[in-house]
């Protein structure tokens, strides 16, 4: 059983190379973000970061946010890519309300521009307030915004849900947001 520090280190390494910089270790993601597990493990070892198959499985299985998926001998990040991939997720009807965790310094811009994907492909929305609070708290004191997802869907906005339950949408215009008072 590996310690938590090692687990976090491997998870961050996977995030960096499966979401943002696969070329840095010489791997190529397919159009849907997948790479063979053996190719990833060999590339990591070749670049001085050896990960055993058992460690990889443990990180994937134990990750509380289910950031990674392994299927048919391949691995990918569930969402959050800055590199071009099509996660091939179906359009789904979202719940009436979803949530977005942020911090106070971004609220003024969000009130004006809405939620934009920034350096990612989609805006990430949480199915519950608790998850959004945890997301927002990574950058400081969290502010949780309420998203009228049902109204957005009715107005033609396409929603997708990643394997770990995160809802993805291209943008959220300000009119669909409720801000805490």
Mean pLDDT: 93
Total discrete domains: 2
Structural class: alpha+beta
Strand order in space, largest sheet: 4-8-9-6
In short:
The protein contains six helices and ten strands; from the N terminus they run H-E-H-H-E-E-E-E-H-E-H-E-H-E-E-E. It is of the alpha+beta class.
Walkthrough of the structure:
This protein has 181 residues and is an alpha+beta fold. The chain has two domains: 4-77, Arc Repressor Mutant, subunit A (Orthogonal Bundle), CATH 1.10.10.970; 91-178, ADP-ribosylation fold (Alpha-Beta Barrel), CATH 3.20.170. It has six helices and ten strands, in the order αβααββββαβαβαβββ. It has helices spanning 4-20, 37-46, 53-62, 107-113, 129-136, 149-154; strands spanning 35-36, 68-71, 74-77, 91-92, 98-103, 123-125, 142-147, 159-161, 167-169, 177-178. The strands form three sheets. Strands 4-8-9-6 form a four-stranded antiparallel β-sheet, with no helix packed on it. A three-stranded antiparallel β-sheet has the order 1-3-2. Strands 5-7-10 form a three-stranded antiparallel β-sheet. β8 and β9 (167-169) form a beta hairpin. The chain starts with a helix and ends with a strand.
Topology, element by element:
Blueprint (H helix, E strand, L loop, with lengths): L3 H17 L14 E2 H10 L6 H10 L5 E4 L2 E4 L13 E2 L5 E6 L3 H7 L9 E3 L3 H8 L5 E6 L1 H6 L4 E3 L5 E3 L7 E2 L3
Antiparallel strand pairs: 1-3, 2-3, 4-8, 5-7, 6-9, 7-10, 8-9
Helix pairs in contact: 1-3
Protein name: Probable RNA 2'-phosphotransferase
Enzyme class: transferase
Function: Removes the 2'-phosphate from RNA via an intermediate in which the phosphate is ADP-ribosylated by NAD followed by a presumed transesterification to release the RNA and generate ADP-ribose 1''-2''-cyclic phosphate (APPR>P). May function as an ADP-ribosylase.
């Amino acid at each position: 059983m590996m310690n938590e520090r090692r687990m976090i280190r491997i998870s961050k390494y996977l995030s960096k190379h499966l979401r943002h910089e696969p070329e840095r270790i010489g791997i190529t993601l397919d159009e849907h973000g997948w790479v063979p597990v053996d190719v990833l493990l060999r590339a990591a070892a070749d670049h001085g970061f050896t990960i055993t198959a058992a460690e990889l499985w443990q990180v994937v299985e134990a990750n509380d946010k289910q950031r990674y998926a392994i299927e048919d001998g391949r691995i990918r990040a569930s969402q959050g890519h800055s590199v071009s991939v099509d996660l091939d997720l179906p359009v789904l009807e979202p719940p009436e309300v979803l949530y977005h965790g942020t911090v106070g310094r971004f609220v003024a811009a969000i009130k004006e521009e809405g939620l934009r994907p920034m350096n990612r492909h989609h805006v990430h929305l949480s199915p519950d307030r608790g998850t959004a609070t945890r997301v927002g708290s990574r950058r400081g004191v969290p502010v949780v915004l309420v998203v009228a997802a049902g109204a957005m869907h009715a107005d033609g906005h396409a929603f997708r849900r990643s394997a770990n339950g995160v809802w993805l949408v291209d943008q959220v215009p300000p009119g669909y947001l409720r801000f805490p008072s």
